[in-house]
Design brief:
The protein is mainly α and 277 residues long. The protein has helices at residues 2-29, 40-67, 69-93, 118-135, 143-162, 191-210, 221-239, 243-271, and strands at 100-102, 109-110, 114-115, 163-165, 177-179. The protein has 8 helices and 5 strands.
């Protein structure tokens, strides 16, 4: 029960940080005059850190509540090792995501290349992706492919929102990483999405091999985590004048949300009891 309380609190905090980020960014990038004399660079730094930390915590405690600590720690460990390794290789040789490097805006870096928050942030969204895929009744054979798609969808808005190209910063004021060469989608190379999908597919496949059992749950909390994290990036992409990324993410998010609500309603009608727990 305590883990469930932690989850609700962390989701609420994530939503608060998200709204603060979007409202503040809207005022800042819209050129509103007479704003408070604050260090907006430092403020945005800490809001970004808190959004990730609260999101990781929400996924951690909710997965522990529904699946137990052993599967939770396995998924977290796989993300730290495999996704973290992929990120390290990516920053060194430009594969599988393309040639890029992280800025200082996500805090200290592992061996000077990958911020420590990045590997567990994969877990933050991998768990909701698994939960949503199971909620939608995806077959076991198709599960890794759907999970990978749901995780990659996060980056559809995130990359345009918080990355830019070296030497051509454009409208992104607070970049988390820099692309070394101009790509096709707001400076991002399309190879990046292939890399995201491939790494996500690997994570999902390995996790299912290590932890084959999954406890059914009709909770909508993981969907909320997925929407808050992705929605924040979609909002930021809009404010930095990259509306196509916002529109694409919103279209996918709407479809996923409606399907989840439909499945939960069907299960509730069949069981005759509430689905959010």
């Amino acid at each position: 029960m305590r883990t469930h309380v932690f989850t609700k609190g962390l989701i609420a905090l994530s939503l608060l940080v998200s709204l603060s980020t979007l409202v503040g960014s809207g005022l800042l990038f819209s050129g509103v005059e007479n704003l408070p004399a604050l260090d907006y660079y430092r403020l945005s730094f800490w809001l970004g850190i808190l959004l990730i930390v609260f999101g990781i915590g929400a996924s951690l405690f909710h997965m522990a509540h529904t699946q137990g600590w052993r599967p939770t720690l396995w998924m977290l460990g796989l993300c730290v090792v495999l996704a973290g390794g992929a990120e390290l290789v990516g920053t060194l040789i430009g594969f599988p995501f393309g040639a890029y490097e992280y800025t200082e805006r996500l805090g200290p870096k592992f061996v000077g290349h990958v911020p420590y928050l990045i590997p567990p942030s994969w877990f933050m969204m991998l768990y909701p992706a698994f939960h949503i895929a199971y909620l939608l009744g995806v077959s076991r054979r198709a599960l890794p492919f759907v999970v990978a798609l749901l995780l990659t969808w996060w980056d559809v808005a995130m990359d345009p929102a918080v990355s830019t190209v070296m030497g051509n910063p454009g409208t992104v004021a607070f970049a988390y990483w820099l692309w070394k060469e101009e790509g096709q989608f707001y400076g991002m190379p399309l190879q990046n999405w292939l890399g995201w999908y491939g790494v996500s597919l690997m994570l999902a496949w390995v996790f299912l091999k290590v932890v084959p059992d999954w406890r059914p749950s009709h909770s909508l909390a993981p969907l909320a985590i997925w929407l808050i994290q992705g929605g924040t990036m979609a909002g930021l992409a809009f404010w930095v004048q990259r509306p196509l990324a916002t529109a694409i993410w919103l279209a996918g998010a709407l479809v996923v949300t409606l399907l989840c609500l439909r499945m939960v309603r069907s299960e509730v009608n069949l069981a005759g009891e509430g689905g959010l727990r």
